[in-house]
Amino acid sequence: MKLLSRIEEMVLLSILKLEDNAYGVTIRRLISEVTGKRWSIGAIYVPLERLEHKGFVESYTGEPTEMRGGRAKRMYKVTREGFKALEEIKRLHKALWESTSDWALDKGESK
Amino acid sequence: MKLLSRIEEMVLLSILKLEDNAYGVTIRRLISEVTGKRWSIGAIYVPLERLEHKGFVESYTGEPTEMRGGRAKRMYKVTREGFKALEEIKRLHKALWESTSDWALDKGESK
DNA sequence: CTATATCTTCTAAAATATAGAACAATTGAC
DNA sequence: GTCAATTGTTCTATATTTTAGAAGATATAG
């Protein structure tokens, strides 16, 4: 199985963090906050669709009965497969960074 | 500045870990080990070249005076810019995973 | 019905990832 | 010298992903 890409990882984690309020707009906002960068609409929705197609997230139509205008939300949640993919990334990240990170990055700073 | 991609991150960290023995073949081997997957030649060299073009790594021709056949190695080291990019990823990862990771992943496991 | 607010879908272009054939350079055997 | 074996890189083409934002959809308020 292929590894999650950076944006896929961020989208999945954002959905987890947003709990019952995870949909395109809030996911995009959260990712913008955490990265400090601007993200276009497509930069979020396209990977989101791909994640659904791969079975890493599921979506359902959000409650339309809220006192607000606008189109219905498409809400997302992470599937068990999505969790597994995240676990794999977590393991990989640990293996990659464990020994290297501190001393090596310090060395770089003081160069 | 754009975030490092997954493979760029892995290549940079591999170079750090390999210290004075970082070149195409060893980088590829290390990434294969840590991911448990097969990586083609191009899957390593292409990002490696891009990292050099962006100034995140520098290369030099390896010592040719070793008792062995074969073409000269192109050795790599991470530049200060490369370190900075890694630091950014490290911060991002921390922000993304800190609160979410444990309880959320556990919830997933027990679903 | 019109204006406004929210949100998603669609589409195209740019950038990256991925595979592996081809090429290059060095050693040792004869 | 030159042939085979070894080691490693460069080249190049295709597939996939990223990224941007226009267009479209739907709900409310007046």
Report on this structure.
- 2 copies of one chain form a homodimer.
- Chain A has one domain: Arc Repressor Mutant, subunit A (Orthogonal Bundle), CATH 1.10.10.
- With 111 residues, chain A is mainly alpha-helical.
- The longest helix of chain A is centred in the last third of the chain and has 18 residues.
- Helices cover 59% and strands 9% of the residues of chain A.
- In chain A, strands 1-2 form a two-stranded antiparallel ribbon.
- Chain A is globular and about 50 Å long.
- Chains A and B meet through helix 1, helix 4 and helix 5 of A and helix 1, helix 4 and helix 5 of B.
- Chain A binds a DNA duplex (30 and 30 nucleotides) through helix 3.
Question: How big is the Rg of chain A?
Answer: 17 Å
Shape of chain A: globular
Name of the CATH superfamily of chain A: Winged helix-like DNA-binding domain superfamily/Winged helix DNA-binding domain
CATH architecture grouping of chain A: Orthogonal Bundle
> Given the structure, what is the number of helices of chain A?
5
Quaternary class: homodimer
Number of domains of chain A: 1
CATH class placement of chain A: Mainly Alpha
